[in-house]
């Protein structure tokens, strides 16, 4: 789940890190409830920071799974989008939360973080200290009502404040 939450694009489970003891135990327990050895999860983000996953899974070999995901990727993304639209219809009068606008430097920092730069790389790219970068990130987090930096990036993306 964490591996999918940290991404904005569909995730083939083969690309996730299953090496930790906790991850292996989780996967083993899930298998006892019928979870397959192959999976494909699509993160879905709502206009107010909501998060969900649309996931398909099965038990098959890698070659068969690769063929399935390659030939059905577009349809799976469309299905996930459709489910998200239907879920949002449960609260038809709810409008996206209004947020304060981000400063140009906050936008720059959030954008570089969103495309995968480390804090050190962002600071170097913007020609600022990491301390100054922390100030920009904390300010953006506050304005976006985010719990952490990843959440702030997700909210900025979902609200169209940054584009990657």
TrEMBL record:
GO molecular function terms attached to this record: DNA binding
SMART domains, A to Z: HTH_LUXR
Residues annotated as domain HTH luxR-type: 95-160
GO biological process: regulation of DNA-templated transcription
A Pfam family it matches: GerE
Keyword check for Transcription regulation: yes
InterPro entries the record matches: Sig_transdc_resp-reg_C-effctor, TF_LuxR_autoind-bd_dom, TF_LuxR_autoind-bd_dom_sf, Tscrpt_reg_LuxR_C, WH-like_DNA-bd_sf
Record-given protein name: HTH-type transcriptional regulator, LuxR family
Keywords recorded for this protein, A-Z: DNA-binding, Transcription, Transcription regulation
């Amino acid at each position: 789940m964490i591996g999918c939450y940290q991404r904005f694009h569909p995730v083939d489970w083969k690309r996730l890190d299953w090496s930790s003891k906790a991850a292996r135990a989780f996967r083993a327990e899930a298998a006892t409830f019928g979870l397959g050895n192959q999976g494909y999860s699509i993160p879905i983000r709502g206009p107010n920071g909501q998060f969900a996953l649309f996931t398909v899974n099965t038990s098959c070999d890698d070659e068969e799974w690769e063929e399935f995901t390659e030939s059905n990727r577009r349809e799976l993304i469309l299905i996930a989008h459709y489910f998200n639209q239907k879920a949002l219809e449960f609260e038809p009068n709810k409008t996206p939360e209004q947020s304060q606008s981000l400063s140009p430097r906050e936008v720059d920092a959030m954008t570089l973080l969103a495309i995968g730069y480390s804090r050190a790389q962002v600071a170097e790219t913007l020609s600022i200290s990491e301390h100054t970068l922390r100030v920009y990130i904390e300010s953006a987090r506050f304005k976006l009502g985010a719990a952490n930096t990843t959440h702030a990036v997700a909210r900025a993306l979902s609200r169209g404040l940054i584009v990657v």
